[in-house]
Amino acid sequence: MSEWEPKIVAFLCNWCSYGAADLAGVSRMQYPPNIRVIRIPCTGRMSPKFALAALRNGADGVWVSG
Amino acid sequence: MVLPDEYNQKMNDRKAIYKLYAQAIPGAFAIQKVDKAPCRLACPAGLNVQGYVQMVGQGKYKEALQIIMEDLPLPGVLGRICPHGCEDACRRCEVDQPVAIRDLKRLAADQFDPREIEIPKIDPRDERIAIIGSGPAGLSAAYQLARKGILSTIFEALPKAGGMLRVGIPDHRLPPEILDNEIEIITNMGVELKTNTPLSDDLTIDNLFDQGFKAVYLALGAHKGITLGVPGEQAEGVRQGVDFLREVNLSGSAPVGKHVAIIGGGNVAIDVARSAVRLGAESVQIIYRRTRTEMPAWEEEIQAAETENVSLTYLAAPQEVLVTDGKVTGLRCIRMELGEPDSSGRRRPVPVPGSEYDFAIDQLIPAIGQRPDLSSIDEVDGLEFTRWSTTEVDPITYATGREGVFAGGDLQTGPWVAIGAIAAGKEAAESIVRYLDGVDMTAGREPIVREEPVYRPVPKDEPIAARAKVQELSPEARKGNFNEVELGFSEKDGQAEAHRCLNCGYCCECYQCVEVCGAGAVTLETHLEQRELLDINVGSVILAPGFTPYDPSKLDFYGYGKNPNVITSMQFERMLSASGPTEGHVARPSDHKDPKKIAWFQCVGSRDQNRCDNKYCSSVCCMYAIKEAVIAKEHAGDDLDCAVFFMDMRTYGKDFERYYEGAKAQGIRFLRSKVHTIDTVPGSDDLSIRYVVESGELKTEVFDMVVLSVGLETSPEVVAMAKSLDVDLTPANFCDTSTFAPVDTSRAGVYVCGAFQGPKDIPTAVVDASASAAAAGELLCEARNTQTRTAEVIPEVSVTGDRPRVGVFVCNCGINISGVVDVPAVRDYAATLPYVEYVTDNMYTCSQDTQDNMTQIIKEKQLNRVVVAACTPKTHEPLFQETLTNAGLNKYLFEMVNIRNQDSWVHKNNPDIATQKAKDLVRMSVNKVALKQPLVESELNVDQTTLVIGGGIAGMTAALSLSRQGYETHLVERSGQLGGMATSLYRTWKGEDIQSGLTQLIAQVSAEKGLSVHLNAELDSVEGFVGNFKTIFAADNKKVEIEHGVTVIATGAGELTPNEYLYGEDDRVLTSLDLDRKMLADDAVFGKLNTAVFIQCVGSREPQRPYCSRVCCTHSIESALAIKERNQDADVYILYRDIRTYGERETLYQKAREAGVIFIRYDVENKPQVVKDGDRLAVRVTDHVLGLPMEITTDLLTLASAIVPYADQQLSQFFKIPLNDDGFFVEKHAKLGPSEFATDGVFLCGMAHYPKSIDESISQGKAAAARAVTLLAQENIFTSGEIATVDPQMCSSCGVCVSICPYSAPGFIPEDARMFAGKATINAALCKGCGLCVASCRSGAIHLNGFDNNQIFAMLDVI
User: Fold this and answer.
1) What is the gyration radius of the CA atoms in chain B, in angstroms?
2) DSSP label at B383?
3) From the CA of A63, how many Å to the nearest CA of chain B?
4) Averaged pLDDT, B97-118
5) pLDDT tens column, B296-331
6) CB distance from A23 to chain B under 8 Å?
7) How far from chain centre, in Å, is Cα B1241?
8) How far apart, in whole angstroms, are the C-alpha atoms of residue B655 and residue B115?
9) How many domains does chain A have?
10) What are the chain A neighbours of B908 within 8 Å (beta carbons)?
11) Site from A13, A15, A39 to mutate, B interface, most B CB atoms within 10 angstroms
């Protein structure tokens, strides 16, 4: 059995962190493929319900960045 | 090819094909080219030398040969024997020695068999061509014809093919198998070769045409030796050099004497000599009539001959062959001396009378030249020959006088280099093709001569690198054989040699980019694209050419360019950047280690007229140095020690002083000092800095790195541009402007903005940019909307209530995505997802043809939701949304999946996991898109009336500009007169009279039609939002109601009334404005005063007001000079903390010091004391140099008191515009939005924003107008569809949304409304769609279109 890998849901602000994630790609930085990004218009949009829903649906971690 | 990357300040490399504007989106690539490299131009056959040298340098031998064989079918042959004129042209000679180009060509042919090079197949044509002679000209013609599908038959008189290559060059220079192999390249293409077939009576030109050959190419060469013309030449033992070599080359040997004399100085003479040595001659002597300098043979050949014991006799010529019994026994020579130059430019040899001498030989081989042997063609009709036996041809087409007969090579030129014959053959082939096609043979073939070719400059710091030498056979091993002497380069040596190439043409035209470009964007055609010159009719020109950073290598004591750890601030900026050469990691260049201590040196190339010519302050360096130090600490950690060495700290911008104080609190050290010397610490790359502090003490400290805070200057190119545009410059080469017209150049209709107007930071430059746009807008008001086009509106299909039909388009992005992610697998997976009706993958989904295709597919498959899995929505969402619109779908029925920037590019080494991630993301988006609804962008009219609040300089300027741009404008002023603070000001720092400028401005405002001025106005109420404001105010006690689309806030600021330094207690203590008013009134006090003192920073830069009032230093210095003008003998003192005369104001500071104004610095902890002793007014201050207290008795004390904002809370609430802690209004963006508010439709200018000078207020007044016009000109605006909406039935009227929204979009439905009174509602015009209210709504009443709860839950359901 392969080693356990966490699944992390990332809520990224469209204006900063999402753009930064794009820039990481443009710069060809390499990072682990464990995150699934959900773009939100602002971290102000982030609701505790989203974090709970993510965890309920099997996410091992929730990352909010903005 | 690799070049230093200018964008990264040459700290890393880029290719000749590169992203010209590195941060532009979408990014496009450019290819940097100049003229073709000189090596290529020097080559008779025009070989792309730079191209193949670069390929060899990369070990791409096959590609090198492909480039060579475009023009030359014999790379291994010419790689050995070419006289390489290209190397004489090589610009590497300016550094050291030329690149060993020929040997690199050979290396390519050594490493890859040229016979294996695939030659593009072309359908063969029926016509056949006869070629007479199989030398380089004939072979080249046959090769080039074959490449065009025309096959030929080569007729060769000798038993072996190759012409002079075969019989003129001995095997030790060109092994015969190399020639055989490369001739095979040509015969492999289907060319027929007939040896032992000379032209004769049985094979005439006429016969050839009769046999069906459509054209004949004569390339017979020049094989007939020229005789000496001395007595005895017919004797046995005298033999022509070409005949001797021919025999040696065909049979492997030839009769040779014991003592051989060879006459001549060319390569043939050397070849004969070296062959004679190999055939066993005991002594071999070359006799040449000039000196070695004039000798046409190559130096390396001469040296090789000497190595092989050939003796050379210079300045001698044969007079008679001494003959005994019909055999050569000796030679009589005469000494020569050099006279005047002859037609060849070489000095003519002249015999020295009486210097004859004899010596014994038994063989004489003249090698003084050769001519074509015309015996087989001299009778041919139409052919003409010169007196040198060469054939006459058209110089461009190589056509002879006989139709269908062409000639070239040595037959036409006389003896010349092989590469010349190669070129001739190629040209003849072109002519023959055109001849067969019946088209103009000359069209487009005139040689183009570039008088002054442009090349890549030789880098100043190009290191010396010796030219590599090829391996040679040892002299002992050469004896008695014809084994090849030169053994060529090893791969390693050759590649290193290739790297010596300076890439004179930038792009080497290797066309490797064309090979790999899957999108077909880079092609041979696009490669040829050049800058285009366009003529555009314009009504106005705006100059924004920017600045160039000062080059500190001119100041050698900084060690820039010598110690790698001394870098410029621009380089450090790139180092801090995540997209920079170190990806934001602070590493010192010498060893890439983390520095522990970094020093910044201020004023490098600024405020310095001794070591450079830039007297002015560059305005921005203090602030950027602090920023760099702060960010460096952020990146490298708190342990990093940052020290800034400075003279005056000029943090005069908005919030800059606070930042400076914050930096100090973070431990950044600021050392007020002068740097004395910088030395590299022996045995390391560390830097020892000796500096003098204010007290005069000399200190030494060692740093790991030094950053030079370089100044801004105007580049020579911009100076030239200004000259050509007839625009005046200041003495410092900035654009000359006046205070009341800060963006107008000296030429009407030409405006300026940015650092060309004067060194400035980003916000000021952005203000200028808008101001110049306003200036142009005023001028061209009538032309507005005369050149616009209206887009076609496609009717939208209703999808409401329809079952979702999702189309998924997966992009390969060339190999950007498909190189990692299994795109077909993602596509096929998408097809299995619910509601997906259509899937496909595209090479480039964003290409125009794919877009058109998508439009069709959406219509045909009746898709009503679209998902594109490709790059990032940040750049491409609008494009795909437009596609939806074109297909009649609401553009919000769309989702984008980021499988490039956030997947394939970042998980290169995990293709399986990246593919899984792509599937997951597609699944999430498909789930979301099904829930997406069509959204409406509501249309709002923009009222075309404007309101400007504040009648000072900024407000008047804004109002005037708006009115001049065609908008009805109302200007309201709280006082009874226009002019604001400017009414109290005397003179600008440029010496302009402010009152006359102000009077003129007021007159313009009063005279402006469509501009109404309301004095003594007081705001009563403001309602509405962008495009639709309603403001009620009382003016002169009358109530006025105005509906307006935009508002400009220009309420200004006032002067602090000081409560220290005896202000108000003694009439001699004034504020700056008091002083100006006295100046304006021409007060008598100035005539009789002995002493005047200014105290700076009164109320500014102190804990209760931690900002710099920006204008006071300049103001006090200007006032000090005005006092000096009135009373030269007056002692004037300025007590200051830092002098902040930024930009060219610095020259005023200098002028004041020259005029004898005394500047004394004080610390905020030790402020001056003002004492009154009877009638005597005195100021006590500690002298900053001596450290001793001093007392100045003064007649006048001027306090440069702070500028304080009105901090108008009511206005702030009326227009929902925030105030900062100091009471100034907060603009939309400190750098990029200085003249507008985050609240749409409200704009900002003047001192309400921050203290500023008149020119800056005028710029910002215009800027606010320009920003307002961008909105007004639209007449109608559309709100975004992705905004919040309230479900009033759920709303509990708690008001959280109203209080939390930064844009004041939510409000309550009025209590008297018919429905939902008191419930929240959101103004679509103000909502930015951030979702803050949605997340904070405790009732769940607010929804965010496009990012609603159900949509995000839908994504989370399938993570």
Assistant:
1) 43
2) -
3) 13
4) 96
5) 999 889 999 999 999 999 999 999 999 999 999 999
6) yes
7) 37
8) 72
9) 1
10) 28, 30
11) A39
In a domain, residue A38? The reply is: yes
Dihedral, CA of residue B1287, residue B1290, residue B1291 and residue B1296, to nearest 10 = -100
Q: Is B1044 left (phi over 0), alpha (psi -120 to 50) or beta?
A: beta
Residue B490: name the closest of B832, B176, B149, B110 by CA. Answer: B110
- Measured between CB atoms, does B817 come within 8 Å of chain A? no
pLDDT tens, residue by residue, B1274-1314:
999 998 999 999 999 999 999 999 999 988 899 999 999 99
The pTM of this model reads 0.81
Q: Does the pLDDT of residue B235 top 60, yes or no?
A: yes
Query: pLDDT for B770-785, tens place per residue?
Result: 999 999 999 999 999 8
With H, G, I as helix, E, B as strand and everything else as coil, classify residue B658: helix
Distance from the Cα of A1 to chain B's closest Cα (Å) equals 16
Residue A1 belongs to a domain: no
Which tokens sit at B488? Answer: 């060529």
Residue B286 tokens read as 């070359």
| Closest of B1259, B1249, B1267, B1202 to residue B653, by C-alpha | B1249
What percent of chain B has pLDDT above 70?
100
- Which residue range(s) make up the domain with A45? 8-65
d(CA B543, CA B1150): 29
Q: What are the beta bridge partners of residue A38?
A: A11
Distance (Å, whole) CA B256 – CA B263: 15
B503 phi-psi bin (left φ>0, alpha ψ -120 to 50, beta other): left
DSSP string across B1245-1280:
-GGGTS---HHHHHHHHHHHHHHHHHHHTTSEEE--
- Domain annotation covers residue A3: no
Residue A28 resides in a domain: yes
Contacts of residue B991, defined as CB under 8 A and 6 or more positions apart, other chains included, come to none
> What's the CA gap between B1243 and B959, in Å, rounded?
12
Residues 147-186 of B with CB under 8 A from A: none
Return the closest-CA partner of residue B1100 out of B1120, B1071, B1078, B1076.
Answer: B1071
Residues constituting chain A? 66
**Residue B1092: which of B1068, B1113, B1073 has the closest Cα?**
B1068
Rounded distance between C-alpha atoms, residue B1223 and residue B1295, angstroms: 27
CA triplet B602, B603, B608: central angle to 5 degrees? Answer: 150
Alpha carbons B694 and B66: distance in angstroms, whole number:
68
Token pair for B1092: 């005047």
